[in-house]
Automatic annotation (TrEMBL):
The lineage of its organism: Bacteria, Pseudomonadati, Bacteroidota, Cytophagia, Cytophagales. This is Carboxy terminal-processing peptidase. It comes from Hymenobacter polaris. Residues 265-335 form the PDZ domain. One of its GO terms (molecular function) is serine-type peptidase activity. NCBIfam families: prc. Gene3D superfamilies: 2-enoyl-CoA Hydratase, Chain A, domain 1, 2.30.42.10. Belongs to the peptidase S41A family. One of its GO terms (biological process) is proteolysis. Keywords: Hydrolase, Protease, Serine protease. GO terms for cellular component: outer membrane-bounded periplasmic space. Coiled coil: none annotated. Pfam families: DUF3340 (PF11818), PDZ (PF00595), Peptidase_S41 (PF03572), TSP_NTD (PF17804).
Amino acid sequence: MAATPLKIGSYAGLAAALFGLASYRFYERQAAQEPPTKEQVLVGTIVQGLSQAHYQPERLDDAFSKRVFDLSLKRLDYRKKFLLQPDVTRLAQLQTDIDDETKRGTHEFLDLSTKLLAERTKQVQALTRELLAQPFTFDADETIQTDFEQASFAATAAEQREQWRKLLKYETLVRVAELLDEQDKRRDRARVASLHHLPPPAAPADRTVAQLEVAARQRVRAYYDEQFADQPNAEEVLARYANTLANTYDPHTDYLAPQRKEDFDYQLTGRMDGIGALLHERDGLIYIEDIVPGSAAYRQGELKKGDAILRVAQGAAEPVSIEGWHANKAVTLIRGKKGTEVRLTVKKTDGSTKVVALTRDVVVNEATYAQSAVINDPSGLKIGYLRLPVFYADFNGEGGRSSAADVQKELAKLTAEGVQGIVFDLRENGGGSLRDAVEMAGLFLPSGPVVQVHDSRGTTTVLNDRDPRVQYAGPLVVLVNKHSASASEIVAAAIQDYKRGLIMGTTSTYGKGTVQRIIDLDATLPATLGAYKPLGSLKFTMQKFYRVTGSSTQFKGVASDIVLPDVASYLDEGEKDADYPLKWDEIKSASYHPWDNQPDYAKLEANSKARVAANPSLQQLAAIVQRLRKRQAETVVPLQLAKYRAWQRQLQAESDKYEALQATAKPLNFSQLAADRQALQNDSALTKRAMRFTRGLDKDLTLGEAVAVLKDEQ
């Protein structure tokens, strides 16, 4: 997730001005010729704007073309199952021409790649139907490579046919194994009932492998029928290409089509306009998966989980059938501005049909917001637990919440509880508002620099916490993992550099040390091109941030003071693993004064290492992580039923071991804050949220060790 588009000095305004100026010059050139197409407008705006405003602008040359080609091909057919090698060779003839096409406003590469993929998709659709019309047998001793990065494009149609035969056989085999597992479980339940002299539970008769293969193959065909029916339209193809162009600058420079921008805003603010229904698609229908507590749909009460939405009407307008649509397309009709009406024709779970009229309102995702609780240790110590899922902020000035303000409130409540240490959980927090990160770090520190921001002009701005007050001055542990990024890394780095507390978790955090700004592309359009609105938005990297020490978190992340085993640590999911990341560097250190009452790092780390070494659960977890890392490299899967099921049982055994670890962990005792109890008694939605918040945390091995470290600090 990107750092917030924060106005730092006049640089953000300058970036916007440069963007608009570059776009204006592009339109000025186009006007001298003929009216531009939407492709020319969108691509020209993005490329010309980024050439002026990006932190590390790229020249439109052959190297740029090669990057666009490589990334486009990777995304065009990532499984390498549609295009043939001759198609790739044909496209490769254009790999150094994309810069020239962009300059002159033509898109031969995009047009040809779209045409070739559409033709091959049509051919593959016919091929899959042909292959799925015949039964598969699972006796032959053959295998399939499941890592598509190690695969190659088929040289001929015959070779492609064999690749698809294996893939469809594999997908059918997976479903056959699942159906066999279900039968085994039913037999186990019947056996248990028999031992207890109870009647066997109602269940269908067992089926042979051949019978299960028919059912499994039907599922695979239904899946592919849906996939082939959901081909992107011209707008979606253009949006994907525009995003690919943007991503060649760095992984966090993105083109956001209008709906994607709404999703992005919801992620960063926890608020959006709509009805508050979560949707999923199944068998050609759009179903209600859940209702967001407190939303318009929740208050109105007529929509229920399991209802199928058949038609959508805007106010008094004629309804539009959405049968056969995918959920992301249906969402575009159901969402809308606060105060507008939408009428949904729904099929209820009892088979009846009903029209439900709803007035759209702000949908609030409470799971986005900061929450806290108290951990009651058997020793009598009270430890505060504070979790922040994202650095949300009121970016649009619409009365939304601030993560820094909410964390301040939670710290005040925890302090009132008399906690003797706090665990601040930033695991899985991908970042968000830079401003809130600076303010939040200041809640634990006296006034002083928190982070340095460096722009492409070479100007460094130090962002300071100007409030000398410290909201919480007691022992502090910050939990991180490989998915803690951006604003999370700013806070963790500041806590570490000031020696204010301990960073615990995976070896290092994600490694995103860049700042983005979002520009509404409609604002760059001259009035003569108003017909192209809405054009979408562009999120682009305009600055890098640096620790107060001068070191960047970009690429490397923040190293933990105490490293603990984590099941996700074997995954290659950091900034360094992304396409075209900006590199690590460093600048001059800021002037800062470390915390006076520093933790005894050597003692705390030594004690933690001793505990981890003596903790069977953590040692088993470390062993599981090593086995998972080894498993990750084992990408060749057997297509013989007996061998495949044996392979699956090995994987399940690893999963069972991890679940067993969770079950045997010494449970933590959580209690709600006194300040929250009255509100919980009067609001069932808040009560459910509080229950979800602590669910599973009582057996969290990492959290348990964090509590032990805080006990050592007493």
